[in-house]
Records
---
Amino acid sequence: MELEKNKAEFDKLGLGLAAISYDSVEVLHNFAERRKIDFPMLSDADSKTIRALNILNDTVPKDSAFYGVPFPGTFILDAQGRIVAKYFEDDFRERYTAGDILAHQYGVAPAAAKTDVQGRQLQLTASASSSNPAPGERLTLALDIDLKPNMHVYAPGVEGYIAIDWKMKDSEAAAAHEVAFPASEKLYLQAIDETVPVYRNHFRLTRDITIAQEAKIKPLVDASGNFSVEGTLRYQACDDRLCYVPQDLPLKWTFHLENFDRQRVPPELQRKPPGQ
Amino acid sequence: MRKTAQAAGLIAAATLLFAARDYGPAIGSRMPDFSLRDQNGATHTLQSLLKPKGAVILFFRSADW
C-alpha cells in the first residue's frame, strides 16, 4: 500500500495516521499480514463513524455486500482534531495518494522518478511523488529549478515578455492538472525602467497528474510494465543587461505501473450482503 | 406524484454525478469522536491518534473487494 511507504514521512512531520474502512477486524488483519502494514487500519464494521461524517456512499444499494462503504477520501486534522483540509475525488476510481497529500499539504518535495535536465541558463530536477503508481492514482510532479546567478525568468502575469510555461503532451496514460506557480518576486529593471514579476535562484513548480483507468493504461505499458509522460518547459531567461533566446526544455517522467491487488480474504471472512 | 419524486431523484443523482460535491463536515469543524479497533484488535480513538501536528485520517472503500 502506498501509505505504508510514506508512513515514516508522516511520523517525521509529527502527524498521526490511520485508515478507516467498513471491514471487520479479521479482514483487516488478513490484509495487513499479507501486505505487511503496521499503521493502524481501523474497523468501522457498522459504518457508524462513516455515517457520523456523512460520507456513506449512498449510491450503493442497501441489499449489496458493499452497502456501508464510504466515499473514499482523506481528512487532514490539526492537533485539536479540527478539519483543516479534505481530499476527496468525485470519481471513486480516482484517488489522491499519500505522496500527493504530503506535497500539497506539507510541502514535502516529491523524491521519486528523478531526472536532472541541463538547460542554458538553468538546471532543473524533474521528480514525482511516486515512481510506481496504480491506475486512477493522483500524483504530484515537480520541477525544482535553479537559475544561474543574476538570471531571472518571467512569472505568469507578466506583460510583454515570455512567462515560464510548463506544458504536458496529451497522453492517454495520464490526465494533467493545472500548474501551481509559487509567488513571484517583483524585480525593478533599470535598463527598461520597469518592475516585473520574476523568479530567481531556486523555485519549484508542481502539478498533479491522474493516471488513467486500468483498461486504458494497460495497453500503454511496455514489456517491463513501464510507461512515460512527457512535457516541455518554455522560458526566456534574462540578466540585468539582456534577454536570451527562448528555450523549450523537454521533460520526461517514467513510471512503473503497479497492478491492482485482487487477492481476497478467505471466503469465510468475506462480507455478505445484509440478511445472508 | 411518485413519478415526479422519481424524476427529482434522477435529477438529484445526475447532479451528484456531475457537480463537485462537498464530502464530510465543513473545514474548520471538529472531527466527530470515534473509538475503533485496528487490525490487531487494539482500540484507537480520535484523541489517541492526534499527534503534535494533528493527524491524517484516510477512508478507503474496503481491503477486500
Note: The longest helix of chain A spans residues 25-35.
---
Amino acid sequence: MQLKFNDYKSISDIVEFIKNYSKKNIKIMEICGTHTMSIAKSGIRSILPNNVKLISGPGCPVCVTAITRIDEILSLVQNKDIIITTFGDMLKVPGSVDRMSLSTLKSMGAKVEIVYSAMDALTIAEKNPDYEVVFLGIGFETTAPGTAIAIKEAKAKNIKNFSVFSLHKFVEPALRALLNSDDFDVDAFICPGHVSAILGIKGFEFLAKEYKKPSVITGFEPEDIIVAIYKIIMQFEKNFAIIENEYLRVVTYEGNKIAQDVMNEVFEPVDDIWRGIGLIPKSGMGIRGYYSEYDAVKKFNIKLDYQEKTTVCKCGEVIKGMLQPNECPLFAKVCSPENPVGPCMVSSEGACAAYYKYLRI
Amino acid sequence: MEDIITLDFGSGGKKTSQLIEEVIVPAFSNDTLNSLMDGAILNGYKKIAFSTDSFVISPYFFPGGDIGKLAVCGTVNDILMCGAIPKYLSLSFILEEGFKIEDLKVIVNSIKEMADVCNVKIVTGDTKVVEKGKGDGIYINTSGIGFIEVESYGKDKIEDGDVVIVTGSVGDHGIAVMSARNNFFVDSSIKSDCMPLINLANIIFKYGDKVKIMRDPTRGGLATTLNEFVEGTSFSIELFEDKIPIRKEVLAACEVLGIDPLYSANEGKIVLIVAKDIAQALLSDIKNLPEGKEAAIIGNVTSSYKGVVVLKTGIGGSRILNKLTGAQLPRIC
C-alpha cells in the first residue's frame, strides 16, 4: 500500500506536523550524498524535533573510496605518460602521505584533467594519442552506466590509449554490511533518488522486506525530503515497514533497464574495500574480461591493496553514521574544505563538507 | 599595422607608439591623455576615492560583455561604492604576442562606450606585451579616482531593525562566464549583468546617511558580501531565501553545475543596508530604473545573533550562511 499525504494540504502543514511530532524516537539514515547536501542547505535539521534524527550514510562515492586506492591513484599519476581524468571532487582528496593529493601533484606538474563525464575523458584520449588517458571511474549505479558506455565506445572505435581505474561500487552490499553489523543503530532509510532511477524500487525492497526498516525513495528538493520524513513517521505510527516511492516523477519499479544492461555487460561484482567499513565481498565493479584492455589496473599492473590503512580523521565513523561530522575532533579545526584531512570534507556530497558549509544555527 | 600583436608592440619603441596612437588614444581623446605624459595632472578636490582592479577574465568575450566593459565597470563601481562619483581612470594592457588587433579594437571600443556612459575620462595608461604562452590574450588593469559625495558609509552605522536591499537578480555574471567557458547551455539566455552602477548609486547617494553601507557583491557573491557587513559587529542579518531575486535559468544552471547562486559573482548589482523608515521609498526609487526593476527587500538586521548571516529557507528551516570557502570558480573578472 502507498501512503498518500493528501490529508495534509501543503508542505507547511507537514513541516508543522514534523516539528510537533514527539511520540517515538526515530533515527533516519539518508544514503545519498546529494540528500545530505540538500538537507543541510535547506536547514531541515533545524525543524526536526529532538526525537527524530537524520544520519548521513555511505552515499558519497568519493568519501567511501579507501585511502589505499587514493595512494594507488597518486602513484599512477607520477607516470609521465599518463593523463588522469577525473570528476573534480577527487582532486583534493589527500592520500596517506603528507596530505598529498591529485591537486598538489598537479601543481607540481602531474597531468590531471577535470571532466564532467567518462565520454569527455575518451575525447581527451582521442586528442592526445601520445599519452595514456586513465579515467577514474567513481560512483555508484548512477555514474557506472556512463563509464560502461565510454568503455564500449572505446572498444568500438578501437581507441587504445584509454583505460578506466574502476572505483565504482554497488550500494546494496554496503547497506547490507552496515545492517548486519552489531553496532548499527538506524531505524529507517531515505533511499537515493538517482540510484533508484537506475535500479528501480525493487533495488531497495530488501530494506523493508528483509530488515524491516521503513524506507522511502525520494527526490532532492527540500519538499521531497520533508515528505519522505513524514512518510517514515507515518510508517512508525502505523507499525509497519515498507518501501515507498515518493519520487514518482523519476523512479519506476523496474528502473532503467538499458542502464542496468550496459552496466552489467561491462562490469562484474568483485570484492572491494570501503573507507570506514573495510572489505565487502562483491561490492565493487570490476571490468569484465572482454573489456580487460580498458582496465587500468591490468594495463598498468596496479597492485590493489585490500588492507585498510588507519587514518587520523574519523571519516570512516562518519560514513557508517556512528559519528556526526562535528563530533570528529578534527572538524573545522585542522580539517576544512580548504585544507581537508579526509574525503568527507572534500567532496561536495560529503557529510563533513555539508556540515561545514551549511552550519546549523 | 599588422593584424596581430607581436613582441615589437611591447618594445617601447616606434611600434608601441603606433599601437598607442592608432588604437588606444583616439578612443579616449582628451587634453590630459593627449599630452601623453608619464602620468596625469588633474584638478584637485578636497576628498577623493581611489581604487584599482586587474582583469584576467577567461574568456575575454562573454555573454553580456567583454573584458573591456568589465574593466571600466569594475573600477567605476568600486569607486561608487565608496560614496564617490568616478572622474578619471588609468588603463593598462598586458597583451600576449599573437593577440588580434581586431579583438583589441572591439575591447577598446567597449571601454570607450562604458567610459562615456559613466562620464569618466581615461587619462593615463600603459601597454606591455608578453611572449606567446606567457599570458592569456589580454589582461587589463584600471585604476580610478572619484570625488566623494557621501562620506558616512560604514558597518559601524548598522543598527537593529535596518533593512537589506538588493538591486536585482543575483548570480548572473559567474554563471554566464562559467557557461561561456565550458560551452554549457550555449542556447541559454544567461548573460552577465556587467554594467556601471552609476544611476543606481546616484539615487542611493540622495538618501545620505540613511544608507548605512553598500557594496557590489562581485567575487564571493551576495553571501560573502553580507557576511562582510556584519562580521565583527554585534548584529546578524536575517535573510529570506524566497525573497532573493534569482533568474530561473540561473537557478537551473546552478543546479546542473553544483554552484550556489548566493556565492556566484555579480557585476551589476548593489546590496545595501538602509534605515527602515526610508526602505520602501528607496526601493521604489530603485525600481523606477530599468536596472533596478527586480530590486527587493531580502532581509533585515537583528540582534538575535552576533556577526552572522542567518538564512531562513523556503521550507521554514534556518541555517548559517557562511562566507565563500575556497574558489567557486577562478578568473571570472
Note: Chain B has a mean pLDDT of 91.
---
Amino acid sequence: MSEKRWNPVIQRWFDKVLSRREFLKSQAVGGVVLAAGASGLLRPGTGFAQSPPDIAVAKGTPARALRAAMKLMGGMGAFVKSGQKVLIKPNMSFTTKPEMAATTNPELVRELAIMCREAGAGSVIVADYPLASADECLANSGILDACKNIDGTRVVGATSDALYKEMNIPGATTLTKNGFLKDALDADVLIAVPIAKTHAATGVSLAMKGMMGLVWDRRVMHQLNLSPCIVDICTVLKPHLTIIDASRVLSTNGPGGPGKILVENTVIASRDMVAADAYATSAFEWYGKKYLPKQVQYIRLAAERGLGRMDIENMTVQKVTA
Amino acid sequence: MQFRRIVQIASLVFFLFLLVCAVQGATYGIALDLFLRMDPLLVVGTIVGSRAFQLSFLPAIIVLAVTPLLGRVFCGYICPMGTTICGGDRLLGASKNSKGAKRYHRVKFFVLLFIIGAALFGVSFVFFASPIPLITRFYGLLIYPVVTLVGDMGLRIGRSAVELFGGPTIEGTVSVPHYATLFFILVFFSALFFASRVSRRFWCRYLCPSGALLALLSRRPVWHRAVSSDCIDCGKCASQCPMNAIPEDSPEKTYHTECIICRKCEKICPKDAVTFPFGRTKEAAQEMPSLSPGRRQLIFSGLAGMGAAAVSLTSLGSLYGQTGGVGIVEPPMLLRPPAAVPEKEFLSLCVRCGECMTACPANALQPIWFDAGLTGLFSPRLVPRRGACDPHCNRCGTVCPTQAIREVPVPDRRWAKVGTAMIYHQKCLAWEQQKRCMVCDEVCPYNAIEFQKVEGNPVPVPVIHEERCTGCGLCEHHCPVRNQAAIVVTPLGALRESRGSFEEIGKRQELDISLEHKKDMENQGNEEGTAPGFDAL
C-alpha cells in the first residue's frame, strides 16, 4: 500500500487550508450536536407516545421493513435535511452473492438511498473499502446494480489512498491516527447499514466493526488490538443513523462464510450505533446460543467510553410488522 | 502524409491497442500477443532453443516467408520498435550518415548468431535482443505505469481543487501498477534513443537480430530499389537513407539486406531516377554490394553464443542434468505464475516480453533480476505481497506468446498450484502475540486455513491445510504483519506440467482445491464454550 504524496510542499499547504476548513465545519457540527442534545432534554423519552424509540425493530421484506422502522424513528426527514451530503456504509466487502449473507442486502441499501433522496439529500455516496477486488465485490454483492439508477447516488469501492485523509484520533486509547475516507468525513449524515453476522475475531460484526470499511490502514488495527481500535475509529466515524440488516443473519462462520443463515426478515434502526449493535447481538442466536452485548468486547468498550448505550433492558424498543 | 508513415503509425497504434486490451482484460477475439508472435527471432530462437514448433508461431513464419518477395517491409512498416525509434530520431534530431559506419552493420549478425548458438545449447538469450519483447516491456512496464501515475496525479489535483473551490465531484480512481527492474528498461531505452546522435535507426542498423534474420532473406528481394541512368551521382539519397543502405560512392547501387523499402530516396531524388519496381529488372540483376560479415566471423559469433550457453549451463543454479534427486540449488522462494511449464522448459520458452506482468490485474507478476541466475533474467515471479492470484483469472496464460505460461481454463488453472502457504509462528499475531487476528482465514477463498485452539493460547491460531492450498497468496497479501508477512507462500508443492489437466494431476497427488469447501469455526471459541470472538460472561 503506497502512501505517496504527489508533492510534499503543495500537499502540506493543501492540508493546512483544508484543516482550517475542517475546523470551521466541526464548530458548526458541534453547534448542531448541542442543539440536538438540548431538544432531547426537552423531550423526555418516557413522555409522549409520538416520541421515537431508542431502537425500532421492523419485520418484513427489506424495503418495507426499512420504511416501517424509519416511520417509528420519526421519518428520514429527522436525519436527512435538504441538500445534505449522505454517506451510506453497507458491507460489500466480500465477493459472495447476497444469498450468502456476508454482505448487506442490496434491496435494503437501494431503499435507504432512495429514502435519503426523498428526504432531500443533495448527494448519496454508498462506500466501502473491500478486501477483495472492489469491482468484483461491488458487482457480486448486487449493491452496484441496485443503486446505479438512483439519481444523485453513486457506489464507491474506496481502494485508493487518494480518497483518504490522514487524521489524529483525539482521545484514542490504542489507535492514535489513521486515514479516514474523505467522503465520510465530509458527509453531513453518516448512515451505517451493516449486515448482522458473526466474526471470528470480534464475536459479531455490526455497525461499529463495519466502520473499518471507511478506514485506510486496517492492518495496524490487527497489530495493536482489534476491539479497542474499532472503538477508537468510532470516535471519529459516529453514524447519525444505524440500520442493521437482519433480513438474513450469518449465524456461524462469519465474516466470510459460508455458514448457517437465519432468515429473520428484520431491520433494526437506532440513532445510537452502540445500542443498535447491542440489540442485534442479543436478538439473534450465534452458533446456536444467545449472548449478552457485554460479551462483545468492542460493544462493552464503546459503552464504557460513552459512545452509546448497551443497556437495552433500559431502552425503549418499538416493534412493528410491515 | 506519406503512405508508409500511415501504415507505421497505424501498426504502432494497433500494437498499443492490443497492450491496452491486455491490461483491461478485453480481447475482442484478437490474439493480444500477435506482434510478439510476428517477431522472427523470437520464433526462430524459441523453436531452436525449446526444440518444439508451435502452430501459434505462424505470423513470424509469414513475415519470414514474404521477406524474399518484399524485402524488410516488416522493419520499415510494421515493427513497433522500429517506429518508436524512428519517432525518437525525429524528436531528438538524428545525425547525418557518416562514412565508414557501414562496417558496424555486421554487428547485428553477430548478435543473431550468438543467440542462435546459445539456443542450439538449449539456452534462451532471445530476450536480450529480440525487438518485440523489448518494446512490449518498454510500453507495458515503463510507459503505461507512468501514464497511470500522471492520470492519478491529475485526479488528485482535481479533487483538491474541488475541495478548495467547489465544483462537481470527481469520480473514479486510477490504479498505478508498480514494477521491478524498471531501471534496466530505462537505461536501455535511454541509450537507444540517445544513440540517434550517432546515427538514425541505430538499433535497426547495427543491433537488431530480428532485422539481421530478415536481412539474410532479402539479398535479392522481388520488390527492390532500382536507379535509372538519369542518376547524376549527387549522393543525396546516400546521405539521407535512414538505414545507410546506399553506397556513397555509387548511389545507383543498393545494399538490399539493409533496405527497409521506406522509399525516401525515391522521394528526394532530384532527377526522379529512383524507382521501386516489382520483379527481376535489369538493375536487380547487376552485382549488388553486400554488408554481410565473413563466414569466419559468423562462426565465431555462434561459437561465442555456445560458449556463453555452456557457461550458464554449468553455473550453480543451472538445472542442466538435474531432473530430480539431490544436489539441486533452486531459488528458495521463487514463485512462478500459475500454469507455468516446468522450470527448465520455462526458461527456454519465456521471452521476457512482460506481457503477463502487464496483463496481471493484481500487479502480482514482477520481472526478476538475478534471482534465477543469468538465464532467468527478467522472467516473471509471483509476488503475493504486492498482489495475489485471483481465483477467477487466467490472463497471464492467455497472453503468453510462447505458452511458457499455459493457457488453461480458469477452473483448471485453480489446480495449477503455485506453491503452499507456510506460517512463521514467531511473527504471527495469533500464535506469538495471542491476539485475535484471523485475516488469513477471512481472505482465503479455498478455505485452506483453519483456526484451531491450542494448549496455552487463549486465542485460536491459524493452521494450514496444505492439500487445499493453491498458493494464490491472498493470505500473504493481506497479512497485517508488516515487512515480512507472518504467512508466506513457498514454491513447495508447485504443480509444473507441460501438458494434461492440472485437476487430474492434482487429484492424483491428493490435492483438494476447491472454492466450495465448507467452513466450520464452531471449535474456535474459548474454554467456557462461547462462540468464536465472544468473551465469557
Note: The first strand of chain A starts at residue 55 and ends at 59.
